[in-house]
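quick one before i forget lol
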Amino acid sequence: MKATETDFQAWMGHVQARMEAALSRLLPQAQVAPARLHAAMRYATLEGGKRVRPLLVFAAGEVAGAAAARLEIAAAAVELIHAYSLAHDDLPCMDDDVLRRGKPTVHVEYGEATALLAGDALQSLAFQLLAEHRLADDPHAQLEMVKTLAAAAGSRGMAGGQQIDLEATGTSLGVPALEFMHIHKTGALIRAAVLLGSACGNSLGEAEKAKLDRYAKAVGLAFQVVDDILDCDASTATLGKTAGKDARQGKPTYVSAMGIARAREMAESLRGQALAAVQGLGGRAGRLVSLADFIVLRKF
């Protein structure tokens, strides 16, 4: 059952506020040496972003009846990986961007070297959190959580997807090649968010795990398709990052591959796939249903 829009907005605001407080607590304080590095880590992570990945952790956790205290740590780990990736992606040697979440990018504010180190340290902290907090009743299950996040961030996941993206700049890719790239670059971490959230709770059956996996893969691709649409269709002020940059840099996108109308159709199709995947999970999947709608229908 889908939650009402008012209920969903209230839940989303609650999780976002909880995660802002948790991340602020879990990150090193800015006055602790080395102060400049810690300040850059906090700058990269706090006060911005939709927190889609933490929202997915909490929503998937509801399916498994997970405790909020566990979900908070798992969500923080995923978000720290995401924040590190943005700090690195924005560097001149990567996407060379100057605006992120409505403020100067980390390397603009703190310099390239500190931005690089901040990303490194955020990634390390993510795995430290997974290791030092009890997130699952079975130690083997928690070890699998570490493995899931590591794989999602590595060469067969997000980092590999970024490499493919770099190599594809200035070329024309068809939809299958775009899907392969974004299953890794964007989808892998979104999938990890869902899997980690569900792993924090009661053990699920294989059929239920498969439903969540299909959902995660669909919303992961949908997120990127909508991102490509918004890059063409929304303003810099709305997005909080430089609009139209993909086209100017010659990056292949779903819009360049199929046009904006068909890209919208694809996003809607993926939304349908995500909703179909969690049918049968009942009210436990209500937040996941609402998040699929939010991801596809969002305007920023």
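fyi The first strand starts at residue 99 and ends at 100.
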